[in-house]
Amino acid sequence: MSSLELEQLTPAQKRALLAEHLRKRTRIPTADAASSKDEAAPRQPGDERRRSFLDGDTIALASLKDWNAQEQDPYVRYVAPYKGFLYQRLGLDKTFVRGEGCYLLDADGNRYADCIAQFGAVPFGHDPAAIWQALEIARREGVPNLVIASIPTAQGELAERLLAVAPPGLAHVVFTNSGAESIEAAIKLARCRTGRAGVLAAQDAFHGLTLAGMSATDTAFFQRGFGAPVPGFSVVPFGDLAALQAALAARPDFFASFLIEIIQGESGIHVAPSGYLGAALELCHRYGVLLVVDEVQTGLGRTGSLFACEAEGITPDILALAKALGGGLMPIGACLYTENAYSEQFDLRHGSTFAGNTLACRAALATIEELTKEDRRLVHHVAAIGDRLQQQLRQLQTEYPQLVKEIRGRGLMLGVELDLPSLAESKTGMLAMLQHEGLLLYVAVSYLLNVERIRIAPSFTHGAVLRIEPPLIADAALCDHLIGALRRLFDALQRGDAAELVGHLMGRSRSAMSPPFSVPPQPTPAAAGPRRSGRRDGARFAFIVHLLDPSSLRRFDPSLEPFNDAELQALKSRITEFIKPYPFGELAVETADGRRTEGELIALPHFPSELLALSEDEAVALVQSAVDSAVERGAEVVGLAGFSSIVTVGGLALRAREGVTVTSGNSYTSWAAVQAIEAACVKHGMSLADCTVAVVGAAGAIGHALSLLCAERAAELILIGNPDSVEPSIGRLRLVAENCKRHVASLAARGRQFAPGTFAHHWGRRPTPSADTDARITIASDIDRHLPRADVVVTATNAVLPFIYARHLRKGAMVCDVSRPFNIVPNLRDERPDLRMVDGGLVRAPETSVLGLLEEPNRRNVLLACAAETIILGLSGFRSDHLCGRLDPATIEDLGKVAARLGFSAAS
Ligand code: PLP
Asked: 397: part of which helix (H) or strand (E)?
């Protein structure tokens, strides 16, 4: 679709298109020939198939306020500061002091079942007696370990042994130190033997992280920024013979080798279709290409046969091994290859200092012995226990059919694919947000580690797959433990019980957890009453919100109710850096006359104090990113809640976007507050015209507007500024006082009548300075002295903590707190029943509204006026140049009238 066509779509159509695009995220083989890395555009890191937080930008460690590298473990300080940071945040930063078989022990003696086993490099558990014994014998014998340019007998012995047990037809071996080095050797050998440069690999493969291995590893996450892929590397879809044939035919003399895993591990355990390998071998030979099978992970018993290609009944030209070959103690790899693949040039010129050292070869010999003794008993055990485990996993799948999408793999190389995207769509709160940010899989793995004491690996870059690869000696007890743990994990996920999954990140043990939580059913916009005929759709809106305090997290996710503020703060500190502006909660408002608008919230995971602590640039960039995200998701009206407005100077600091209206929401907030005060006056038999009104925060945008509106209505004003910066604040208040005078004078000049006794009545008739006028507007910053004089106190500041106490208020005073967080102390109502409390900044929406988290707790249809303003703009099409920054009384009044017509009213 062209960008022009795209532009012509309605926002709803664009959203539908995006949803469709997201649905197609799954693996899509193309029938095209190989996408050549040096010709085709590189795949973007944000590729929709991959939803992991690892795909995003890294976080600059220096920008973290609560992270001091010097306080970290030396590994984190010197070796891997960023990985260490991620492990800490995700609760994966365990230190193990002992290994016993399939279990690892921490310093407190807790045992963790190791179902990663270094992705297969720990075949016999963590204390492999037979391998140690082989090393001890070598020591006792005093055999030299490193003797280049002579005949290393251990290499010869090991090669002979390997070739004897490997698929028939393999004739030579070259030793290496790792899997990636085996791949390097294989590629060099193939190039040398064929005289060709091309290397064809499979999409989503993993072949190690040296430059060549990485070039054959088709994932932007591994390649980006490292100059990979180097020229000559291409990929075809995994398991797609037609694509392979087309790629080879398209460049008949180009490819030296086709590199393939029989089971792709890193991409989430994908097994090559049956018969694929044999046909691929035939195709390769037809085009003079060497088939390299990468059995670095699948080899040596892992899949229930000694080599995975045994089960396929083929012998590749080159077979790459590593991992398990060292028996869990020594680093060693090897390439086994056929006579046909042999090259004198390669033999002569390839090598590596440590490759094939005696100790590694002795360990490998002992490994082969362990795997092949008693008629390959251990390998048969892997096949049997793997089948049993797979059956148990399939049983779990029947219990959680919506969550468990697929079970894949062979032997003890298994993958459980979870449908976390669908789960997240059916949930709200923490789980949905963690999934949106690509963190849920990692939190699940962290839960398994910390609560269930099971180490399991996630697929790092592709989808949501739990990779299960315990040591080959894993027994039924370990499998049963694993299944029990997975059942509890799935149960918590299914119930939407974030508390169960993240409790450990707040330091809670399972025994200290509350009873299981289930997400209550949520109303959806579809439930927003019957749609009237003749309905008119307004502009879609978004409202940028942020956390007010830890209890906002409890509202956001009711499962977090049992946690105290300190615990929730601890949870938030772990995840804040990973959370981008988060869209949630589809909202809808329909008016009595059939106008309807829809929208959503975009949440910033920051408390007010955190937003204020950001530099101006950081804060504006953050809110801008939220606005951009809202617009990309189709919003035409974007409202700024609370501090997202304050840190952007009421939205003025934001970049204007064509066709998008941004509002601070302050106009209607001011209007609704004055309306509420007037209504309360009527209720209590008071007249505002007789009252002294104190406006706390009068120099701010809302305070300024309130001052103007009160100048029209009240007898006297006390304008109160910030006591922490008296000088500038008093200067600004003088201007506000002048504006009050100018405002009422201009209204009077246009014929507006004011109630007798009001400041406006007085000044409007005689707009010249006098002692009497001056006495009617007091400018101050000392609330102790001035607030007790006021009959009505209206407060609108950006103070983070409350500062208005009972002692500040005269008997029977009316109090209207527009600020969030509140400026009045929480227990004021109880302490002073004489006070007349007015809901500041709250309004009531039309009956048929779905307001989600915008709705005030236990107050049906009541929401903040700033949010209501956003919705009103969406419904009405009302626009003005004064919605951001300094407010304009005429706009405020007009908007107030529009709001009333649409059925909005000040909450009482
Ligand atoms: N090939 C495959 C299939 C692998 O799974 C791995 C490692 O996970 C490698 C190559 C790279 O091995 P190493 O990490 O020893 O370099």
From this structure: helix 358-399
